[in-house]
Amino acid sequence: MTLQQLKYAIAAAEKGSISEAAKALFISQPSLTNAVRELEKELNIVIFNRTNKGISISHDGEEFLGYARQVIEQASLLEQKYLSGKPMKRHFSVSSQHYSFVVDAYVDLIRELNADEYDFSLKETRTFEIIDDVRMQKSEVGVLYISNFNEKVIRKFIRENDLIFHGLFKTSPHVFISKKHPLAGKDIIELCDLDDYPYFSYEQGSYNSFYFSEEIFSTLERKKNIRVCDRATLFNLLIGLNGYTICTGVINRNLNGKDIIARPLNADETIAVGYVTKKNTTLSPLGEMYVRNLINRTKNL
User: Fold this and answer.
1) Residue 172's CB: how many other CB atoms inside 10 A?
2) Of 56, 82, 108, at which residue does a domain stop?
C-alpha cells in the first residue's frame, strides 16, 4: 500500500467516477483502475462497487477512506514541515447542529492557536450528516443533542457508526422568539400559546425523520411550518414573521443579536447536548483543545 494508491482512491471517491478522477490526476483510466484494484486485493476489501453506471463506495470503502484521508493529511503535514521548510498548516474540522457555543469554542481555539496559517472548517449541518462526517473522519468532532424522544434511535445510530457520545450539559426546552413577539412578556410559555404562530425548523434533507429533527416536539401538528437551512435566516424570519422555534435556550447576543430572546417552555422533556467522536480513535491536539473549549463554554449552562 502506497500514499499514491491512497490518493488515487480518495480522488475516485470525490469524483464519483474513475474516468473523471483519472483526468484530474492526469493519468490514464486503466492505470487508476489497476492501482485501486491492487489496493483492494492487498487489503482484501472492496472499496468501490462497480456497475454499468459507474462506481459507488462500499461500506468497507467508506471506513477505509476515512482513515486514508487522515494518512494523506498527516503525510502532507510532514512534507510541509521537513521538505518545504515552511511552518505546518494546521487542519481541523467540526460538524454541528446550530449552536452559538460551538462557534464560541471555535473562536477560542483559533485565538489560542495563534497560527500564521491554518485550514479549518466549521459546518453547521443536518443531524445525519454530523454523524456521517465523524464516521468518515471528515470532521473530528460532531455536536448534537439527545432527548427522551429520540434517545433510543440516535444512540443506536451513533453506536452502529462506531462513535461515542460525550455529554456536555442538560437543559429544559426553551422557545426562541423576537423580543417584540406578543408572547415575549410571558415568564413561561405553554405549547398551546404557540398555536397561531409560524413554527421554524431546520431542514433535514433525505433524513427528515422526526428522530433526526434538531427541534424537539417535532411530531406535533402545526398550522404554519417553515423549514430553513441557515441560522441567520431562521432568526431574521423569527423577527419578521413573529415566529418561533424550540431549542436549548442558549443565546450568544454577540452572535445572534439582541432581538432574539429565549423563554422557558412548560414541557416534560430534557435536552442532553454533547459531542460525538470516532470510537477507538485518539483526538488530535487540536481536537483536544477544541473539546476543552467546548467544556469551558458550556460548564455553567
Assistant:
1) 14
2) 82
